[in-house]
Hints:
Layout: E1 2-3, E2 7-9, E3 12-14, E4 17-19, E5 27-32, E6 35-39, E7 44-47, E8 52-54, E9 63-69, E10 75-81, E11 87-93, E12 96-100, E13 108-115, E14 118-123, E15 126-130, E16 135-138, E17 148-151, E18 157-160, E19 164-168, E20 173-178
Antiparallel strand pairs: 1-4, 2-3, 5-6, 6-7, 7-8, 9-10, 10-11, 11-12, 13-14, 14-15, 15-16, 17-18, 18-19, 19-20
Amino acid sequence: MSKVPPAHHSEKWTMYSLSSARQQVVSMQFLSASNGLAATQHTVFHFDGAQWKSSSLVPAPAYIYTIAPIPGTQSFLVSGSDEHFRSLLYKYSYDKWSQLPSPFSNYLVTIHAESPNSIWAAGEAEIGFYNGTQWKLLDVPTNYTPLAIYGRGSSCAYLATGNEIYQFDGKSWTIIFST
Length: 179
């Protein structure tokens, strides 16, 4: 049975089961204690504060790498790849999947959605910002693979690698932490 990390409620940990499928959880994000998402390689689950429910399977041949809820909507983004590791990007909204055009040549490792008009994504040697209409691709400021990204609008973002954290000011990336 697939398990996710326990939820923390007033110093008490509770373990929740996702399903009887033996799949590893590959990504998880929460907007609140009663609105969370977790993904296995082929399925996305929603947590409503009491239980996990699965969505329909992501369209084949996608393999999920990361998910991102879009605040203020009933939608979320799923990044994955096909069997040749080409980037695939899907939006799930109101029980329907739609494939979105992806300017990325490699799969995405991390996505952060502030709103439908402010989405940051990063992967193998690529970073992108989506303004609701189109993607703008940016150079990765390091040789390390981006592992996490967080952004507020088009002119403020943070990028983490295994060894560094960078800040984007709308024009360039500056290293703000290094191990």
